[in-house]
Amino acid sequence: MDKDNIDIDKIQEFGKILRDGGTVIFPTETVYGLGADALDENAAKKIYEAKGRPSDNPLIVHIADKKEINKLATDIDERGYKVMDKFWPGPITIVFKKKDIVPAITSGNLDTVAVRMPSHPIALSLIKESGVCVAAPSANISGRPSPTDEDNVYEEMNTRVDGIILGGNSNVGLESTVLDLTGDIPMILRPGGVTLEELSEVLGEVMIDPAILEKNENIIARAPGMKYTHYAPNAEVFIVKKDDGDYVDKINKLVDEKLKEGKKVGIMCINKNKDKYKGEVIGLGDDLDGVAHNLFKTLREMDKKGVDIIYSEEFEKGGIGQAIMNRLTKAAGYKFV
Ligand code: TXA
Ligand code: MG
């Protein structure tokens, strides 16, 4: 479906599937989502089944109208309204105290609910026509990179849901920022499309959940999903630290060693370095937005090429770089060289 020329009859058909308790995959500006009626326990259960996802990992509830927030959440203060006004519709999810109407299966047994109003026209139209609040995690099998393009989402999930709307590539390419507003200081539980810098401008002091900044078995991530292995391709991923001077040489040396061992090696880099490397080289983008847009797709592409090892350049952590390095570090299982 063309997002600039929406087929409303088709959308209504898919909306009916959701209203009747079925599952529908749809595009959003961040990644593809696997939706079902968030307030219907049986429907929400189907999401966990389709993904093979642990049921203590709560779902994000998607709405098409800011007013719907009052149905789902309580204790919304000025900070909440500020963030919704400034960034919705868009790539940020807000965690509030939940109302009783949100079933435990949707909230992963927590007393909070995560809510997002996406900006993708197909997503908005589908939610609106369905007439329900739509719980939707990323539309991948649990642990795999989130799908951001039509081919990958169709291939992986086609037989697992009641409907799929294919609507081109996700623009952002990484999942939404998850912001917890239930504590004294706003806390980013998952970095994403809306950056720490942008949030600080609106809210003043904003923290990032310390658990996601380092690998430390003793700190438990506040977003349950962040504790699971995630985004992992079949190949082993290493991030090559940028601190040494001869950066390109360092990567090429590593690649040479592995090629000698008979391994198939993939390299992910900023576009301008593409011609400097040997092996299966994929340029992720010209800048950080490009890298975010292409990262998940490239991890999947590397699998298709059948590489044994992937070396990725390290990226700056400012702006969207925080989210990029968060996903990349998880895909690499925290392995740096
Ligand atoms: O961009 C996105 O957010 C996509 C699209 C489809 O909207 N959805 C998505 O959902 O990434 P999912 O389920 O893959 O990730 C949701 C994250 C998980 O890490 C989960 O643990 C966290 O949000 N989360 C959900 N509800 C929460 C809550 N009440 N408290 C803390 N973390 C929560
Ligand atoms: Mg996910």
TrEMBL record:
It is found in: Cytoplasm. One of its GO terms (molecular function) is L-threonylcarbamoyladenylate synthase. It is an enzyme of class 2 (transferase). It comes from the Bacteria. Keywords: ATP-binding, Cytoplasm, Nucleotide-binding, Nucleotidyltransferase, Transferase, tRNA processing. The keyword Nucleotidyltransferase applies. Coiled coil: none annotated. Transmembrane segments: none annotated. It catalyses: L-threonine + hydrogencarbonate + ATP = L-threonylcarbamoyladenylate + diphosphate + H2O. Residues 8-194 form the YrdC-like domain. The keyword Nucleotidyltransferase applies. Its main location: cytoplasm. InterPro entries: DHBP_synth_RibB-like_a/b_dom, Sua5-like_dom, Sua5/YwlC_C, Sua5_C, T(6)A37_SUA5, TC-AMP_synthase_SUA5. Its EC number is 2.7.7.87. Belongs to the SUA5 family. Required for the formation of a threonylcarbamoyl group on adenosine at position 37 (t(6)A37) in tRNAs that read codons beginning with adenine. This is Threonylcarbamoyl-AMP synthase. It comes from Tepidibacter hydrothermalis.
